[in-house]
## 1
Amino acid sequence: MSERTTTTEHLQPGEVLDRMKEIGALLEGHFKLSSGRHSDRYFQCARLLQYPGLATDIGRLLAEQFNELEIDAVVSPAVGGVLLGHEVARGLGRRHVFAERKEAGFAIRRGFELEKGERVLLVDDVLTRGTSFGEMVSLIESLDAEVCGLGVIVDRREKDVDIPVRVASLVEMEVATYEPDACRLCEAGIELESPGSRHAG
């Protein structure tokens, strides 16, 4: 690993994708995404965030894109969004709450609370189909709080995915995804991998 890869002095948004490639946080092959769909590319953001300096810098860069919004708390899903959410909250000077997956959707546990009317910034590592985003919005609205934005490292959503709040990202990339029963990669006989935390086992 080169010194440049793990140092963060003056990291700029346009350098994030190059840094991910250097670290091996962008994988190519045949992958099962957390949504259940298949893709030929997978962003393993945990490999980027394993370096504390990089994690802090990534969080700062995302936080800077929401400085003008009135935000009371940063909320992220476990496991993938926990480190990132904490660092974005640090950059904004706000508290961080994480939600954990249950049988259907997410729940806030461990003594965390959101107060009625609080304005929440959602933070996650990658945006693809918006499934986790929708589940997190349902949770936050059930607590009478309001989602005012979404911050992600990578925005790889397809054109038909609509997110009804402001979205800010550090990397944008169009990446095709496939339903499992209509996957070109499966048809080609390429071995399927499940690197995401929800499917790991």
Note: The CA atoms of residues 97 and 111 lie 10 Å apart.
## 2
Amino acid sequence: MTVLLQYVSQKPMEFGKIHNLDAINLTLPPGAAFNAKIWASVEPSQHPNVFIGGPVWANKDYVGKVYPSTAKERDFLHYYVRQFNTIELNLTHYQIPTAGMIQKWKAEAAGSPDRSGFTYCPKFPQVISHERQLVATEALTEEFVNAVLSLEEFLGMTFLQLPPQFGPEKWPVLEAYLKSLPDELDVAVEFRHPDWFSKAAVWQQTLERLYLLRRHAVITDVAGRRDVLHMGLSSPVLTLRFIANEGHPTDYIRSDAWIQRLKTWFEKGLQTAYLFIHGGGDNDTAPELILHWIRELNKHCGLNLREPVLQPKVVQGSLF
């Protein structure tokens, strides 16, 4: 079952996928108006927490590049946590993790060389978010929450991806669900229905409500849905899902714009950033892009993030 779920989590991301990039304005928008309230409530940190990684560890293309050439699939997580310091844990979208899985994940994370430690960022199960749309999910939610809280110091941000048909009229359902979750569980909400963003007043009110609930908002940067790039914060914690286009030159242009925005936000008081870099497709190009982000963050934001060590892929039959 675990192998199957790892395969599922690698399937190409269709949300916001587009082939004609020339028709899209990929410029990074200004910050949301509500952000001013966040900056007024915090002081800039000399050492913001930055966690950066990808959405999958079970990728055979990483063998010989991210992982040793001798790596077996059962050891992929072992090597992943020694290269990156977080992961967008999509596996939990398809299955509530068992106690055995949690223990294995904790044991592997304990071997991370990062000073700030390794964090898993689990996605809420789709049976809760998509199939039941947060209704009558008490038992499932309790099972999921108890499982991920047992990750203890290795638990980072959890994120609740709402289905595309979940619009602003369902706010009372979302509010009741978020209030039911324990305070010690960090939760970021990913909104996908266009009506959350089509009227500025609705989105402003949504950020205000999340702020009062002490919950966070996911920002998604994907070419085909620029509305979900809302640039709004409901706390001094950023959860960013950056969806690249399989190594297209604009991937790096967009990335560099984000580095400069993060520099500004750190100076204003951003305390923590969870940065999930998707390469697009099967995420084969994600490691190179993550390395670029880390180098540029260190250079422009005065950070000291550890760089992953990537080996050039050897092309079979080539001597040079």
Note: The mean pLDDT is 92.
